[in-house]
Amino acid sequence: MAQLTVDIGGKPGINCRGFCEYCYFKHVKENPPFGCRHCPPFRVGCDYCSRSVREYYQGWKSLRQVGEETLATLQMMTGEIDRVTISGGGDPSCYPEFTDLIELLSGMEVPLHIGYTSGKGFDDVEIADFLIDHGLTEVSFTVFSADPVKRKRFMHDPTPDVSLKILERLCGAIDVYGAAVVLPGINDGKALEETCRWLDDRGAQGLILMRFANRTDQGLILGNSPVMKGQQVQSPQEFQEMVTDLAQKFRMKISGTPLWDPAIGSPFAIRNEPGLLDKLPLLQRSATVITGSIAAPSIQAILDARGGGVNVIATRKEIACLITPDDLKALDLGEMDDLIVIPGRAFVHDREAERIFTSDGKERTVLRGPEMLTADAETSMGMTRDGVLLMELESFAGLIAMINRYG
């Protein structure tokens, strides 16, 4: 079974009826590419770290172009398609040929999934029944708040009451996963409880809460911090405690990114599973593992349980996959081992990482670790606990094997 992704293009802030107040793509500047795992060996920059990271598109793709690209992809795929996901840089609800697109894709007679929509482009409640009748089975819908006044003020939704009625209709018929960036003092506290209750009563499957980021160390790497001047931001611990509290109060699944999924115990659920930890290889060599400040304590604990000898060093950047060369330059080379493992998805070119970690004249080997060591809420929302634990078991086994081979 395979999933087909249909990319409709579009630009954040332009093809979505304007930026939401809290949108991470506001104020994005033209930055030189950071470098990443996809770059050619002798050149910094590729499509992923120069365009995709900014979700940069020229604009909407025409329906004809989308159809031709979809057909070309289908011809290269093997196996049966079990789901079609619509995605893009713009909001699908604002796609000018949206109903035609849905009719085209529904002809495949495969369940349809909208990977993200704010609903800001929907102005007619009847679109909900149209989507249900044409095979939509799952949608990730940014709600922000069940209060239409807040939704209009902070999402700039011109028809918030209509959007909420559409969301309500979808909740009663298909799998709906709500999403909300949490702005302390605006849509948290009692207001957030009311939003959770609104979604839960209407049959939503889950709600992903996203911790607001407003600084570079929190993940704004595109020269666009702050997104909202003076806006309060929760600490990771405060955010985790909020997610835990809400998850205990409602039927639907509530999880948070970057922390956490209370039902599964992720990220790094394996740290509390001694039997699974015992299945990991024992560490036989030493190394330095670089990661983000949120993940560092858990990774250190898991590796210590397999023999230790590995020094896990946290950057100021909270999220490992958003580490850039500046984060590595700020580290103390005196703490580095002969083998250094950087996050697999860090925005750093391999040769640049080597240059940074050998700038003191000492030769060191720099390798990329596994692409992911755990699952954040956006990933785990559609996974079982066993699936997350298996993923972590395989990823940490790969990391330990790398250290044992090259350390």
What would you say this structure looks like, in words?
The protein has two domains: 2-257, Aldolase class I (TIM Barrel, Alpha-Beta Barrel); 269-406, Rossmann fold (3-Layer(aba) Sandwich), CATH 3.40.50. The model has no long low-confidence stretch (mean pLDDT 94). It has 407 residues and is α/β, with parallel strands linked by helices. Helix 4 (127-133) packs parallel to helix 6 (160-171). The protein has 14 helices and eleven strands.
Topology record:
Layout: E1 2-7, H1 47-50, H2 63-76, E2 81-87, H3 98-106, E3 112-117, H4 127-133, E4 136-142, H5 148-155, H6 160-171, E5 175-182, H7 189-202, E6 206-211, H8 236-247, E7 253-257, H9 274-277, E8 287-291, H10 296-304, E9 310-314, H11 325-329, E10 339-342, H12 350-357, E11 365-368, H13 377-380, H14 385-406
Parallel strand pairs: 1-2, 2-3, 3-4, 4-5, 5-6, 6-7, 8-9, 8-10, 10-11
Helix pairs in contact: 4-6
Spatial ordering of strands, largest sheet = 1-2-3-4-5-6-7
Helix fraction bin:
25-40%
The low-confidence runs, each spanning 5 or more residues with pLDDT under 50, are none
Structural class, from secondary structure content? alpha/beta
Gap between N and C termini: 39 Å
Portion in strands: 15-25%
Summarize this entry quickly:
With 407 residues, this protein is α/β, with parallel strands linked by helices. It has helices at residues 47-50, 63-76, 98-106, 127-133, 148-155, 160-171, 189-202, 236-247, 274-277, 296-304, 325-329, 350-357, 377-380, 385-406, and strands spanning 2-7, 81-87, 112-117, 136-142, 175-182, 206-211, 253-257, 287-291, 310-314, 339-342, 365-368. The longest helix is centred in the last third of the chain and has 22 residues, at 385-406.
